[in-house]
């Protein structure tokens, strides 16, 4: 009888320990050791084979900690730049790749009240290392996203859609009927700009590079809400006034290309307008006509989503949560669609990295 009671007590303790390890970690609770598979790099390099899949031990849970099971994480150009050592933020080695992704909460420390097991969350800062199957971090490192938006939408919402949202909100007052012009319009940010602007009643003129499937791409962007789609060559040869008479001149220009393309956006703006540069894909200096600054009083601004998050997290991380909640609301309402992605099993990671290094590829998302 005593032996049976002892076995029952053992089973009861084991059951409680297993249940506790999946939910809330209380003071003095038994701790279960965890590890994860992660894509690790120990030096910078320009080839995908810099990254290796390794087994990593997870740090111990603390009273403010959260353990996540990563669900999906995109491979973005910024991730490749970090691998190559050309991004403004560089990690300490050994480093886990990936800045963006969505995970599900598995376990929380006993002082964590903002999250609970089962919640979906995204990291708000760059350098998190999302290319892994699990992670342990502080609750303050995370923002909650609703579980009733598409998984690929949740995995990719923290960078590109939020960049588009901020640029449309922060630089000029855009009233319904106002016009925005942008280059790189078929990029993930460009597509988000089109959709969010349409939700605001703002018109968009969207510049793309000429290509064999130009008509197909134009139709795709117009289905998203683009008002006009023109090529760099058309704008260079004819000028905006000869191409489009139906809209007021743009009061906001968005530039992610630089070089001649950025100069074309700048030259198309109305007097007193603002040009926001958030990328330089052409890797060429922005062409700035002196007359645009002198006679048209154009304001030049730059924007980097990572810096905006860091600046605003110091005052109140709820500003970040409010932004993400607003963008998720657009996705829930159908006004913002997730980007068209290629889904890649985690163990085929090299395929996703190689594709992202190449030009004109759709976004690749790792599924854990």
From TrEMBL:
GO biological process, one term: fatty acid biosynthetic process
UniProt GO cellular component terms: mitochondrion
Enzyme Commission identifier(s): 1.3.1.104
InterPro entries per UniProt: ADH-like_C (IPR013149), ADH-like_N (IPR013154), ER (IPR020843), GroES-like_sf (IPR011032), Mito_Enoyl-ACP_Reductase (IPR051034), NAD(P)-bd_dom_sf (IPR036291)
Chain ranges of the Enoyl reductase (ER) domain: 46-366
Family in the record: Belongs to the zinc-containing alcohol dehydrogenase family. Quinone oxidoreductase subfamily.
Name of the protein this chain belongs to: Enoyl-[acyl-carrier-protein] reductase, mitochondrial
Species of origin: Coregonus suidteri
